[in-house]
Amino acid sequence: MISILLATLLQSDLKSAGPLAFGPDGVLFVGDAAGGAVHAIETGDTKGDPEKVKHDVQGLDAKVAAALGAQAGDIRINDLAINPATGNAFLSVSRGKGPDAAGVILKLDDAGKLSEVKGATTKAALPNLPTDKGRAEAITDLAFVDGKVIVAGLSNEEFASNLRAIPYPFKTAEAGAGVEIFHGAHGRFETKSPVRTFAIYNDHVLAAYTCTPLVRFPLESLKPGAKIKGTTVAELGNRNRPLDMIVYKQGGKDFVLMANSSRGVMKISTDGIAAAKGITEKINDKAGQTYETIDALKGVVQLDRLNKGHAVVLAGAEGGPLNLSTIALP
Amino acid sequence: MMRGLWILALAGCGAGPAISLDPLQARAEGVDTLQVYVAGAADPVLGASAREGGALVFRPRYPFLRGVPYRVVAGEVERVITLRPDDPPPPARLTRICPSADVLPENQLKFYLHFSGPMPRGELYRRVALYEGRRKVELPFLELGEELWDPENRRVTLLFDPGRVKRGLTPREQEGPALERGKSYTLVVDGAWPDVWKRPLGKDVRKTFTVGPPDETRPDPKTWAWELPTSGTREPLTLTFPEPLDAALLERVVRVEDVRGVVALEKAETVWRFTPEAPWPAGPRALLVDTVLEDLAGNNLERPFEVDVIRPTEFRLTTRTLRLPFVTK
Are the CB atoms for A155 and A137 separated by under 8 Å? Predict the structure, then answer.
């Protein structure tokens, strides 16, 4: 199950370009669902000052398409990650929408200039991905913490979720099937729960399940073959379609900022979250972490931290252009 | 302002056709580089312009797309070219919706939509709708940016929102389940949905079904009826289930050990029929079934979709693949 590959021409090896996460020293991790692997690219982007950076691009989708010799309708921006060391923005893009779509990684500097990303690359093949017939696994999110890349996957056949922790530098993808994630409702009904998006907060994973609760579980529980039941810390209500999550500090407290496709952006408190016993009973709306919806931010499809006081958002109305802008953290 | 005729050649290699300006023309025009833009765009197409044997060649980083107009600029002269589209195969059609049964459980988990040709990602959720009579059901499906396609983009998985299927969760408390027993629904797939070459599917496709009670029990191989083949023949091995099972999993995780053949599903996915490539050898055989095999409500061989942890412990499997021996007649 070991697959280590060194290639200087990254792009020819990437079969698809999905979720992104930064590691140390300018290493960018890319989830490649079509290729069944996680790639680590040494971008060489290590020097800069994110406090001095501000991103502002109207029609980023059209601009990306133009650089790739395509029209806006032929590309999809799959993820956006800001390099915390420099403030430069990195985009993972699908060029084309069919089965042969190319995966592309682009860098956007704060002058609005797009360039290709090239660099030495290693990759780890994701184990237990039966590739016969029609089964495929979508990689819904990716993060790097404590020397490991954490990958959330969702199958297109069996209703299952998995989370894998792969040590980096890559030697071998974690043996076994990773961990299965479960959700308990009313402390009684236990079901499998795919993870839609997650963020690392202190020693915990904060995950948004596809069935909508926000849960936490300790990082140390991510041992191969484990079955983890997350503790529900917030019930975010119906029509909650979480897209992206970041954690930030403000006024000495930590908050989670979550982009939701139809409900705008939610700011969720983390007061007492680590100690919270979790929501197990059906209760009134006040239980769990408090949150507010930031009405001014609508149509946000991608979100990432830029620096201490700012985030970068990619937003646009349905069918309209996607604009990249810098906002103060609310 | 055109200053002269161009001879434009497209040489195929590497990343697809390149654009080149004939050496004589390049010298005559006194140009050093070619730049290419998607017509109407301000930013140039990523690629490299270089002299190759006197000709001036632009090689795009990603292959030029057919049907997209490109503006080629050589010094002060420019020209718009469009590569003629290939002859594509016939437009894709929606060929099958699974499960094909007319009655589905209230906790139905998913639909599979099958197409005869590749489809583009990004359209799914605006091209499908669920109606109960005239009323459109609001947001019954889980909307994932990734969309759950197979590797050929010919089958897509549409999941019902688990938050409305699972008991005790806020979305279900607030909005109710998407499907209610006793009622009749229609899944409508938009005929205007384009395939990868941007041709529409054709007419809308509808699947009408009624909803029965939720299914909360695990499928159990002990309840399957077997029709055994005769050794020395290519008669099929047939399994009949008391309820429909997941079509994709039936085709992938149920197989005969060491025997190759073709699987067909019949009678609304309640029958699995395996026809061997070669006549059955004599002697004992075995059927292999992975325990991820699910029914329509996501109950698999290991556990029901929702495990009630307060009830006494249910039968729990520890193996991942069941081996069910059988003997040909």
Answer: yes
The structure's pTM equals: 0.88
Chain A CA closest to residue B304: A191
Query: To probe the interface with A, which of B36, B49, B62 has the most A CB atoms within 10 Å?
Result: B62
List the single residue in B37, B62, B162 with the smallest CB-CB distance to A210: B162
Read off the pLDDT of residues B251-301 as tens digits, 9 standing for 90 and up. 999 999 999 999 999 999 999 999 999 999 988 999 999 998 999 999 999
pLDDT in tens, B127-185: 999 999 999 998 899 888 889 999 999 999 999 987 777 776 777 777 778 899 999 99
Quick one: which H or E segment has residue A151? strand A148-155
C-beta of residue A77 within 8 angstroms of C-beta of residue A302:
yes
Closest CB to B294 among A158, A193, A243: A158
- A97 part of contact set with chain B, CB < 8 Å: yes
Question: Which chain B residues contact residue A80 at CB under 8 A?
Answer: none
**Site from A63, A68, A154 to mutate, B interface, most B CB atoms within 10 angstroms:** A68
Local confidence band at B10 (pLDDT 50, 70, 90 cut-offs): low
In this structure, what is the dihedral angle of CA atoms B155, B160, B161, B164, given to the nearest 10 degrees? -170
| Element (DSSP H or E) covering residue A184 | strand A180-185
**pLDDT computed for residue A7 by the predictor:** 28
Kindly report, residue by residue over A51-67, the tens digit of the pLDDT: 999 999 999 999 999 99
* pLDDT in the model for residue B11: 53
Q: How far is B329 from chain A (nearest CA, A)?
A: 31
Please report the DSSP string for B191-237 in residue order: TT-B-TTS-B--S-EEEEEEEE----S---GGG-EEEPPPTTS-PPE
What ipTM does this complex have? Answer: 0.86
Q: Which of B215, B103, B131 is nearest to B165 (CA)?
A: B215
The confidence score (pLDDT) of residue A3 equals 27
Nearest to A267 by CA among A234, A239, A238: A234
Q: Tell me the H-state helices in chain B.
A: 23-29, 124-127, 162-165, 170-175, 247-253
Which two structure tokens, joined as six digits, stand for A134?
């029609």
Distance of residue A12 Cα from the nearest chain B Cα, in angstroms: 10
List the alpha helices (DSSP H) in A40-140. 60-67
The nearest alpha carbon in chain A to B295 belongs to A158
Return d(Cα B87, Cα B67) in angstroms, integer.
Answer: 12
Cβ <8 Å between A237 and B306: no
Q: What SS3 string covers B182-193?
A: CCEEEEEECCCC
pLDDT in tens, A184-233: 665 666 767 788 889 998 888 888 877 667 888 888 888 877 788 888 88
- From the list A62, A134, A140, which residue is nearest B248 (CB)? A134
